[in-house]
Amino acid sequence: MIIDMPSTTTSQVNAKLVQLREQGGVTTLGRVLTLVIVTDDGQKTEGAIEAANAASREHPCRVIVVARGAKRAAARLDAQVRIGGDAGASEVIVLRLYGPLAEQGASCVVPMLLPDAPVVAWWPSEAPPSPAEDPIGRLAHRRITDSAAEKNPIKALEQRRKSYVEGDTDLAWTRLTLWRGLLASALDLPPYERVSDVVVTGEADSPSTELLAAWLAVSLKASVQRKKATQGEGIVSVRLERRSGALTLERPDGKVGTLEQPGQPARRVALQRRSVQDCLTEELRRLDPDEIYEMTLKGLDKLNKGRSAANGAKTASAARRAPRKAPARKPKAAAAKGSS
Amino acid sequence: MRAWTNPLRDERDKRLPRIAGPCGLVIFGVTGDLSRKKLMPAIYDLANRGLLPPGFSLVGFARRDWADEDFGQIVYDAVKQHARTPFRQEVWDRLAEGVRFVQGSFDDDEAFDNLAATVKELDVVRGTGGNHAFYLSIPPGAFPVVTKQLARSGLADQTATDQWRRVVIEKPFGHDLASAKELNAIVNDVFPEESVFRIDHYLGKETVQNMLALRFANQLFEPIWNANYVDHVQITMAEDIGLGGRAGYYDGIGAARDVIQNHLLQLLALTAMEEPVSFHPGDLRAEKIKVLSATKPIGPFNETTARGQYTGGWQGGQKVPGLLEEEGFAKDSTTETFAAITLGVDTRRWAGVPFYLRTGKRLGRRVTEIAVIFKRAPHLPFDDTATEELGQNALVVRVQPDEGVTLRFGSKVPSTTMEVRDVTMDFSYGHSFTEASPEAYERLILDMLLGEPSLFPVNEEVELSWEILDPILKHWRSSGKPEPYPAGTWGPVSADKMLGRSGRNWRRP
């Protein structure tokens, strides 16, 4: 059910919620957290709500969408309440803010928060430079950003590093979990040897590749080279040098990974790029500070960013071209709808 | 062994998934229902969640004359139809690369030699690294011949120290203490106890694991979790289905052996056990064994137990046959389809608190729950009329369906006079919430591949459970027939009498 409440106030929205609850039974009990989605009013909003609804199937939550509309308009709050089939296991409250109100989102969010339950803020696209100091970020126990969705992902990541506060997290980090899991499992097994050198290759503007390289640098205490891939999406390959030979995990096509170790057959594994919904579900699973992410961010400057790209000759030009190929990022937006 | 700490593992890193090491799974009895509806979908779901190792292999063994592709198709259909997570072609393709089929019967030496060759080949081609699990989804009668064949063909041998062989078995773990011991001996003859994984799928359920969180992570419940406050405990597992088509398995076994011996006694152990020192498998097991060894049936059995057999009737808008009319059951079958027993736990914590366990087929509805019923308040400063409708406080852990916890307590009825009535406070995992949480089999198969034994009952637990149940079964054998009850009700009259004697009632779940 979708209920539109044009030009309203938060107390009217709250009253509506109580009324809906009395009519429809206990639909709003048992929510474990409030998820605040901060976005500009536009097409992307719907994709983010969809991802949140899907994530709510594991974490029943109240979703508050703060959609900032035209700033030149008169101050107005349009609300929309979605429950039941239109909202997954959550209830969705969309708050469209216009005019001077657009900058005062927090004031509309505060009355809508669930009592006692943790608050998670999520900026699906552009995030404030310092999320923890943002008025909405200040309300949240956890702040989710997505540097891959920003105009300049690498710069965004650098900004995250500077502004890190406990409770910050970034979906570029979440997208890595499968890679990290595979690599860690590979090192669970013999030969138990030190990794001396690491090469991580990925798209020039892939923040996940940066983070993976930094994570390996910090945890393996090895020298890590970050190379720019001439083709492939996101992270393309990781090579861990050990005395007995190199362990490599490659994903040239963004779908299937191949794990190779000396003396063992090549093993293939499905390693698809994760959808936003997947990542969000994982993020909501934990609400405590992520020390490993912090450690990894701090390790970003340990990387050895060679000028040369992975595949030799065309390198330099490819590296230069890479940041500009923004249209190639389109598939990522599509993935938000669930690359299932 | 050198001590190796994986530099990529950090205990603070809670995101990092536990992925099984290189390995393969051999399923015996792949044509069965369980295998199609639960095992194969669970394997796909694990693969889809990225929790299976690269190169994972699945070998089916059955009498059918199938090629690898035919078996692949069966797995494909099972996955398409029953998997929990969405179908992804690239995940399926990787899984399908490792699917093999070996045809043969259990007494066929050649077939097992073929199986051994297939498994070896997988080590080379897929890199399963000599780590193999054997899932015996077959009747226990076939265990001796299969385990002997596994030993004979060398499949059960661990050829190197860093390899493992594991065997997974399903209930029934015998039909009494003696047969359970025999079965354990047969299996342990080939596989040491630490590589035997007994699946009790209830223990893979989130709600059951939540029992540990509820009890030991909260301050609220533990202080009242004892005989000072608890009046009695009811553990119920009711099913609304009948036994049509399951005569071969069920006739002569009955409800007590089928459900109480394993599921309900495990639930009792989790409800009644003391706090484990830690959640390490060994510590958890120690507590379960302790509480099971303190658990005794309370007699006299003709007053403290009840058993029944459903008769035909109308249930849920359908005409259903009684047990004796179901195909495959003898007209004079004395197999019980309803069983209720009374147990006591002889510890300081539980002295004098009866634990009532009941299970049955064709009951009112499908439900499994643990209800802890508290004593009445020692003094009520109200008029008698004010508390007429006040029952006993209860904490109910709903295991399935609609997983969650219900707390039942008295509350004032809104009106001018003081009147107190029972109300419930509900925590629900939410119907959509459970959709996303993993199936019990996913969890259990993954734990088995990781060699993590916490959720699997050991030998000793199985034998202790039989020790508890055997005296009751013996009494039933010599005391006539089970009492009939109409399909769709909550069991025979004797079940109500059994609690009525001490002024108690079964909850209607």
TrEMBL record, chain A:
Q: Which Pfam families match?
A: OpcA_G6PD_assem, OpcA_G6PD_C
Q: Where is the signal peptide?
A: none
Record-annotated Glucose-6-phosphate dehydrogenase assembly protein OpcA N-terminal domain positions: 52-161
Residue spans with biased composition (Low complexity)? 307-320
Positions of the UniProt region annotated as Disordered = 304-340
Annotated ranges, domain Glucose-6-phosphate dehydrogenase assembly protein OpcA C-terminal: 167-296
In what ranges is there compositional bias, type Basic residues? 321-332
Extract the InterPro entries matched here. G6PDH_assembly_OpcA (IPR004555), OpcA_G6PD_C (IPR046802), OpcA_G6PD_N (IPR046801)
Protein name per the record? Glucose-6-phosphate dehydrogenase assembly protein OpcA
What is the scientific name of the source organism? Labedaea rhizosphaerae
Automatic annotation (TrEMBL), chain B:
Q: Which InterPro entries match?
A: G6P_DH (IPR001282), G6P_DH_AS (IPR019796), G6P_DH_C (IPR022675), G6P_DH_NAD-bd (IPR022674), NAD(P)-bd_dom_sf (IPR036291)
Q: Mind telling me which PROSITE patterns this protein's record contains? A: G6P_DEHYDROGENASE (PS00069)
Q: List the active site.
A: 263 (proton acceptor)
**Per the record, what is one GO cellular component?**
cytosol
Under catalytic activity, the entry for this protein gives: D-glucose 6-phosphate + NADP(+) = 6-phospho-D-glucono-1,5-lactone + NADPH + H(+)
- Name the top EC class: oxidoreductase
Enumerate the residues binding NADP(+). Answer: 63, 171
Pfam families the record matches: G6PD_C, G6PD_N
Top-rank lineage group of the source organism: Bacteria
- Residues in Glucose-6-phosphate dehydrogenase C-terminal domain copies: 212-507
Q: To which pathway does this protein belong?
A: Carbohydrate degradation; pentose phosphate pathway; D-ribulose 5-phosphate from D-glucose 6-phosphate (oxidative stage): step 1/3
Biological processes annotated in GO: glucose metabolic process; pentose-phosphate shunt, oxidative branch
Query: Positions of the region Disordered?
Result: 482-509
All copies of the Glucose-6-phosphate dehydrogenase NAD-binding domain together span 26-210
Q: Where do the annotations place substrate binding?
A: 201, 205, 239, 258, 361
Q: What is its EC number?
A: 1.1.1.49
List the keywords (alphabetical). Answer: Carbohydrate metabolism, Glucose metabolism, NADP, Oxidoreductase
What terms describe the molecular function in GO for this protein? glucose-6-phosphate dehydrogenase activity; NADP binding
The entry assigns this protein to a family as follows: Belongs to the glucose-6-phosphate dehydrogenase family.
Q: What does this protein do?
A: Catalyzes the oxidation of glucose 6-phosphate to 6-phosphogluconolactone.
**Which protein, by its recorded name, is this?**
Glucose-6-phosphate 1-dehydrogenase
What gene codes for this chain?
zwf
